[in-house]
Design goal:
Layout lengths: L10 H51 L13 H4 L1 H4 L19 E3 L23 E5 L23 H7 L8 E6 L4 E5 H8 L10
Antiparallel strand pairs: 1-2, 2-3, 3-4
């Protein structure tokens, strides 16, 4: 005969327990996804930082000029010897991206012939973008932002967003700057920088 203190689970208690387990499992899965996203964003930043270091090594060997961006001169080719054979150039958050390299170079950092400008000509190296993440419908290795100063239409937020994956990592994306540092910037901050008078975010 069973002890009178023994008690079986009721159907309601069983359902509540199952629901709690499901919620906890969902939270764990979401947490794992967030950690994966952060890890991918960090790897992406590391790849961009590698490009920044390569660009400065290149400039020291080439009259302090940045790599060129004309269609006959790819920055990936110019920097190949400095990046090394293990450089992948793809953001791990976007494994199905259609581009071979998922980063685009700011073509405003080249002269009219496509040759890279001297770093010393940049007014604010820490505020001028070199590299950004390509929008998923883009395949080129450089952007087309050049074409005028001041309020150049090619540098408007709408044109920028059409070319750059501005929310590649949550609400922001990774960017490399002329001085070699990298940042994850939210799209709201990038819009603010693009719309500032005499902005140097794109135009050196």
């Amino acid at each position: 005969m069973s002890n009178s203190t023994d008690r079986a689970f009721t159907l309601i208690e069983l359902l509540v327990t199952i629901a709690l387990i499901a919620v906890l499992g969902g939270l764990a899965f979401a947490g794992a996804g967030t950690m994966l996203d952060r890890g991918n964003a960090t790897k992406c930043l590391a790849s961009m930082r590698q490009v920044g270091s390569a660009a400065h090594l290149f400039s020291s060997d080439n009259d302090l000029r940045l790599p060129g961006t004309s269609h006959g001169i790819s920055w990936t080719n110019s920097l190949a010897a400095y990046l090394g054979p293990k450089f992948i150039g793809r953001c791990p958050s976007w494994p199905k991206h259609r581009a071979r390299i998922t980063y685009g170079w700011n073509d405003s950092l080249a002269d009219a012939r496509g040759n890279g400008i001297r770093i010393a000509t940049c007014r604010t190296p820490s505020l001028t973008m070199v590299l950004a993440e390509l929008a998923t419908n883009q395949t080129g290795e450089h952007f087309h932002f050049a074409g005028g100063r001041g309020g150049a239409s090619r540098g408007t937020p709408a044109r920028f967003k059409a070319a750059v994956n501005v929310e590649a990592h949550g609400k922001g994306a990774n960017y490399l700057f002329v001085d070699g540092h990298v940042e994850n910037l939210p799209w709201t901050e990038v819009q603010h920088r693009l719309q500032q008078p005499r902005t140097t975010f794109l135009l050196p």
